[in-house]
Write a structure and sequence with these properties.
It contains 13 helices and 12 strands. The protein is an alpha/beta fold. The strands form 2 sheets. It has a 6-stranded parallel sheet with strand order 2-1-3-4-5-6, covered by helices on one side. Strands 9-8-7-10-11-12 form a 6-stranded parallel sheet, with helices on both faces. The mean pLDDT is 86.
Length: 356
């Protein structure tokens, strides 16, 4: 991309939870390092849970006026989920003063294309980025020519990984696991208690696996991380039930109301990242785990990159257990993780920007 560009990134930004905010923050930092003028418009600040939906609605309403008050941007890159938010953007596009528009779709396009006016809404974008493999094929014919598939994986520099702050209690737990030679199972997720994906991330399934490993005499340490910073009464009761299932299972730590990066943990030689989700996009955690040399066990809920130990969702707990045991045996054989060549996708995003 020739010359410095003025770029606006419209997205959730940290401390918001989730891969979208992490990926966008890394994109911002890399763009700034390359000399571009970057501003961010945060769609999801860390506010009390009860105000979350209202806050996002107000943020979306204010976005066009925010852009009007600024010097013209060359590129506006939107990471907007939800049908009505995309419709709102389509209506206010004239406020963007002729900036080139890039829209990244992080979820499953199949959840969006059946809505009314889908083609017209997405046609507001000059370029469309799909992070999930196979989604371009689902888009209306008119949009395919302006679409590209790019996973949402952007790795920060090694110095950034080393500088990440982890709570002392977590560091002590992980250090003890490494001293004892135990494989470290790392699991993280949000507490989703609504159908059709009740317990979407598989907290209870993971608790059952930890107990099963313990009962079968397989020595591990398990670090289970709750992503949510605000929990209601039903979510707290759910986690108490999960904790009760972990009683007597040995070296287990359930972390809640803590925000920290998994990168320094996954870069250790004994880590196995586990992602038993019932549905998924293109998981940033899976890709960065593989890039750091960790073993990865994940459900077949979405296309997974090479090197992932996948289990079929239909096989349930048994399938997950088998893949985790396979990963543990791989670590104990001293062969380490299978060598998988990984690069991030920052350069691909720059190619999209350059094409505008």
């Amino acid at each position: 991309m020739k010359g410095s560009k003025r770029i606006l990134l419209v997205s959730p930004m940290p401390p918001a939870i989730g891969g979208i905010s992490v990926s966008t923050a890394r994109l911002r930092d890399r763009l700034v390092n390359d000399g571009h003028e970057v501003e961010t418009y945060n769609l999801q600040m860390d506010v009390p849970h009860v105000a979350h939906a209202l806050w996002q609605m107000l943020n979306m309403f204010w976005l066009p006026f925010y852009v009007l008050g600024k010097r013209k941007f060359d590129i506006v890159h939107l990471h907007i989920s939800g049908y009505w938010r995309r419709v709102w953007f389509r209506l206010v596009k004239p406020f963007f003063k002729g900036a080139s528009i890039v829209v990244t779709i992080h979820g499953d396009v199949a959840n969006f294309i059946n809505y009314p006016f889908c083609e017209s809404v997405l046609a507001a974008a000059d370029r469309i980025i799909c992070v999930r493999r196979g989604n371009i094929a689902l888009l209306p014919k008119l949009l395919k020519s302006r679409s590209v598939e790019i996973p949402a994986f952007i790795m920060p520099p090694a110095s950034s990984i080393a500088a990440e702050k982890i709570p002392e209690s977590v560091v002590a737990f992980v250090d003890e696991a490494q001293r004892s030679g135990c494989p470290l199972l790392v699991f993280n997720g949000s507490v989703v208690l609504k159908e059709p994906f009740y317990d979407l991330y598989g907290f209870k399934e993971m608790a059952a696996i930890v107990k099963r490993l313990h009962d079968n005499g397989i020595k591990i340490a398990a670090l289970m991380i709750v992503n949510d910073m605000h929990l209601d009464a039903s979510q707290c009761a759910f986690l108490q039930d999960v904790e009760s299932r972990l009683d007597g299972c040995g070296s287990v730590m359930l972390c809640s109301k803590m925000q920290f990066s998994l990168l320094p943990l996954l870069s250790r030689g004994n880590a196995i990242y586990v992602r038993p989700t019932k549905t998924d996009g293109d998981s940033l955690s899976v890709r960065e785990s593989l890039a750091l040399g960790a073993q990865v066990v994940a459900s077949s809920a979405a296309p997974r990159p090479e090197g992932t130990r996948c289990y079929d969702l239909a096989s349930g707990e048994d399938g997950l257990y088998k893949r985790i045991v396979d990963a543990i045996e791989e670590l104990e054989s001293d062969h380490g993780c299978n060598s998988v060549a990984f690069k991030d996708y920052y350069d691909k995003i720059i190619e999209v920007y350059s094409s505008l």
